[in-house]
Amino acid sequence: MLISPSQLMFILTLISGTILSISSTSWFGAWAGLELNLLSFIPLIITKNNQYSSESALKYFLVQALGSAIIIFSASIMLISPSFAPLCLALALLLKLGAAPFHFWFPQVMEGMNWIQSIVLMTIQKIAPMLLLSYLTFNYLVTTILFYAIILSAIIGAVGGINQTLLRKIMAFSSINHMAWMLSAILISENMWTMYFLFYSLMSSSVALIFHFQQIFHFSQITSNNASPLPNKILMLLSLLSLGGLPPFTGFFPKWILIQEMTSSYFFMPLLVLLASTLISLYYYLRISISAFVLFSPKLKWSSPHRSQSLFTPLMAFINLFGLFIPSVFIMF
After folding, report:
1. What are the transmembrane regions (predicted)?
2. Which of 76, 175, 215, 235 is most buried as measured by Cβ atoms within 10 A of its Cβ?
3. pLDDT at 23 over 50
4. What is the dihedral of CA 319, 248, 195, 119, to 10 degrees?
5. What's the CA gap between 272 and 129, in Å, rounded?
6. What pLDDT score was predicted for residue 295?
7. Which pLDDT score, from 0 to 100, does residue 4 have?
8. Residue 14, Cβ neighbours under 10 Å: how many?
């Protein structure tokens, strides 16, 4: 499907809002960039073919507007209590990110989107709030709040996806779990966050694109889909294991480097929770991928035909396995 001129305009303004936020020299400019990003993403969510898109757009707008209102409120707090204002800013940015304990809106908004919109929400929409959070780590209260957010996001992201049957909700809880790793990387350095975020964006986008090309949205569609060729099922398995951070796939390397840095920084308690939550999240990744191999049912007559993936399949396989071919590049970090 070709991108219409209006969609292209909103995509460009969305990216411009993100760039404005992260390059601004004042919190007012950062707030303006966040608002431009929000108002550009709302029209991209609403589609005629999805009856739940309007609900998701409204929920997303209300939550983001609340976060923006708290940012404006913290500006007035700055005049009264300069030490308390960074805490209000951090809470507002965590709300915009959908990190625990402010995660309530994230799976619900993801449920009403298609896979391409979900990729934008899981990747591009996290750049500006996370980089703005990195500017607040000098404050002790903010650092303490981030530690609690890391632990809660890791636990909720792992446990919340266990009994889910909607793949978009599973990917939402997976994103919350990875958000805990990215918040940990922010506390160490911006370079560490950049490295982890790039790998996470690559892995999550590859999984979402696999589901998009096969038009799979529910767990039952995987178990009843015999028309999918075996290479696509193997590709799904590799991509999900890479997203889960299982060695020796590509997704393991950023976690490996971050584990070393967290050990050097004596972040033992958050690291223990992160490792335990990763093992739990691997359960529902394996639940999805193994079901494609083990559970079968007769082919449904109304199942949609699969789109051509002659180039897509080897490309995604390379993305999830190229860490095996050049491991020395990642060790140099």
Report:
1. 58-78, 84-106, 144-163, 194-213, 234-253, 265-286, 311-332
2. 175
3. yes
4. 50
5. 26
6. 55
7. 82
8. 22
Structure tokens at 331: 């060790």
Q: How confident is the model at residue 47 (pLDDT cuts 50, 70, 90)?
A: confident
What's the mean per-residue pLDDT of the chain?
85
How many domains is the chain built from? 1
Cα dihedral 8/9/15/17 (nearest 10): -160
Highest mean pLDDT among 135-139, 260-264, 279-283: 260-264
